[in-house]
Design goal:
Blueprint (H helix, E strand, L loop, with lengths): L17 E7 L2 E6 L15 E4 L2 E4 L11 E6 L24 H10 L7 E10 L3 H7 L9 H10 L7 E5 L5 H10 L15 E6 L2 H13 L7 E5 L2 H4 L12 E4 L4 H4 L8 E6 L2 E4 L17 E7 L2 H13 L3 E7 L5 E6 L15 H20 L9 E4 L25 E4 L16 H4 L3 H11 L1 E6 L9 E7 L5 H10 L5
Parallel strand pairs: 7-8, 7-10, 8-9, 10-13
Antiparallel strand pairs: 1-2, 1-6, 3-4, 5-6, 11-12, 13-19, 14-19, 15-18, 16-17, 17-18
Helix pairs in contact: 2-4, 3-4, 9-11
The chain binds S-adenosylmethionine (SAM).
Length: 493
């Protein structure tokens, strides 16, 4: 079976596989690339992605290296002699030397040369959990990257780990978890038969069905993610009657406290008050726990309201969970870019070099020299300076490749020390005084010519997402465990 493109996308895009088409920085389209089936399936070119930046036949997106920039095409609808040329988009694009790839792609697949390069462009990116989260069809609220990266880290989810997740919802968390537990095609990092797996549960029938199709299309179903249609409050977390032996649990449910009694090591006793269960002293030997008996189990619940947190924490305490802690992620994007001074000297052959632009360039060079001298030819000692009202005009465009995007980052800017080089720029807070004299001046001078690094933050934190409650259920320690430990590490006390 082919490895999921989420786990190993290979070097190029493939037919019948998922690709993320990036229209602009935050505008992403998930597309299943299809090879043209012939002239009569709508467009002569086969399936076409139509966007406000132009039309992109799938044939021009298949078998190209991931990250390629693809030019829009003038698409011929072809069938029955009816020809309709799409107007070339006047947005985005620019000359980028992609024409050759366009025509190569068409010829190698025998597509009519009716697809001519137009002006807009897109980038074709490999699917990752992060890009999927940004582009997936929402069926529910989803967990976003800042939250799930922190959650997976705190839950110690790593290759070979077994994770229970409920509810699956739109599958945003599931994809990130699948990548985290994946232990290679042969399960190289597993011990014995235990493979890394996500055991995902969803009780809403349509969501479950949609999620199943998506996971199958993404090459993740069964091998990496076991999806079960289940009300976990009522029926718990066993799969086909067997324990997932989970090392970690993530609950994104409206009432996590209702699911917690199923996540015990022994069957919880009937409630004594408020219908809250309690841990049984003796335990029921016929009851199967879904947890790994040999490890402490890490849990996270994800709830938007503090009342949900209170009930969850209270139930956790009664069920023997320890190290209970609540965290809220307040994510703020920082954009980092260079403030280029720009010498503005026309360098092309035959260009008109006027006294005015030479004077301007000389003035700017003098400005750079001054700044360079201010630092005594040596870098600043600190790594971050205070916010400054530095000149940032003209630098709003963060990425040269984002030509479809007129967005400008908002918020304050601040100047940071320029230590982007991994070479000997000695920008180490003064620890390399001696070597500072050795050749760092040229590097530093070059960095002044390149411009200062500027960071810009969003003016405020966007919104509250949810409260994360973390806890640990320690492993049980039996008399046999103690004997085995003493045999391994004899104790002389
Ligand atoms: N974490 C998901 C994501 O990142 O896409 C979103 C989860 S969504 C907020 C909550 C899901 O829990 C819903 O799809 C809902 O149907 C499911 N759910 C609610 N109660 C459930 C239960 N008792 N058993 C299983 N799933 C349940």
């Amino acid at each position: 079976q082919e490895v999921s493109p989420f786990l190993d996308p290979g070097p190029t895009t493939k037919p019948n596989s998922l690709a993320i088409v990036q229209l602009s920085r935050d505008n992403l389209l998930p597309i299943y690339l299809q090879e043209p089936k012939g002239e009569h399936d709508g467009y002569a070119e086969g399936a076409v992605v139509n966007t406000r930046y132009g039309s992109f036949p799938h044939s021009t997106l298949i078998n190209v290296p991931w990250g390629s920039q693809i030019r829009a095409s003038n698409v011929d609808t072809g069938s029955r002699g009816r020809k309709r040329k799409r107007p070339a988009s006047d947005e985005g694009g620019g000359e980028n030397g992609n024409e050759r790839r366009d025509s190569d792609a068409q010829q190698s697949r025998g597509v009519k040369p009716a697809v001519a390069a137009s002006s807009g462009f897109v980038h074709v990116l490999p699917p990752t959990p992060e890009l999927w989260t940004t582009s997936l069809p929402h069926r529910t609220q989803v967990v976003y990257t800042p939250d799930y990266s922190y959650v997976l880290h705190r839950l110690r989810v790593r290759p070979g780990a077994r994770l229970i997740e409920a509810g699956a919802g739109s599958g945003s968390f599931t994809h990130a978890a699948a990548r985290a537990v994946y232990d290679g095609a042969g399960g190289s990092s597993t011990r014995g038969n235990r493979r890394g797996r996500v055991f995902s549960f969803e009780f809403h029938e349509q969501r479950y069905a949609k999620m199943r199709t998506e996971l199958a299309d993404h090459g993740l179903l069964d091998d990496v993610v076991r999806l079960t249609h289940r009300d976990v409050y009522r029926d718990g977390f066993l799969v086909d009657g067997e324990s997932p032996e989970a090392d970690a649990v993530f609950l994104d449910l409206p009432a996590p406290w209702e699911a917690l009694p199923h996540l015990a090591r022994q069957r919880p006793r009937e409630s004594r008050s408020e219908s809250l269960p309690d841990v049984a002293g003796e335990g029921d030997k016929t009851w199967v726990s879904p947890l790994n008996p040999k490890r402490s189990v890490y849990i996270c619940t994800f709830s938007p309201c503090i009342e949900q947190v209170t009930r969850t924490v209270s139930t956790m305490r009664r069920l023997g969970w320890v190290d209970i802690e609540m965290v809220e992620i307040a994510n703020r994007k920082l954009q980092v870019f260079r403030e280029r001074i720009g010498l503005n000297i026309p360098l092309e052959k035959g260009a008109n070099i006027s006294p005015a632009n030479v004077a301007e360039a000389v003035g700017r060079l003098a400005e750079i020299e001054d700044r360079f001298r201010e630092h005594g030819g040596r870098p600043q000692a600190s790594t971050t300076s205070a916010p400054s009202a530095s000149k940032t005009a003209g630098n709003d465009k963060v990425s040269d490749s984002d030509n479809n995007n007129g967005d400008t980052p908002q918020g304050q800017s601040m100047e940071v020390d320029d230590d982007g080089d991994d070479d000997d720029d000695n920008n180490d807070g003064g620890r390399a005084e001696g070597s500072a004299a050795r050749g760092s001046s040229a590097t530093l001078y070059r960095s002044f010519l390149d411009g200062r690094l500027i960071t810009r933050g969003e003016p405020e934190i966007k919104t509250h997402t949810s409260y994360l409650v973390f806890a640990v259920l320690p492993r049980t320690w039996t008399a046999e465990d103690e004997e085995a430990a003493l045999r391994r590490w004899p104790c002389t006390v």
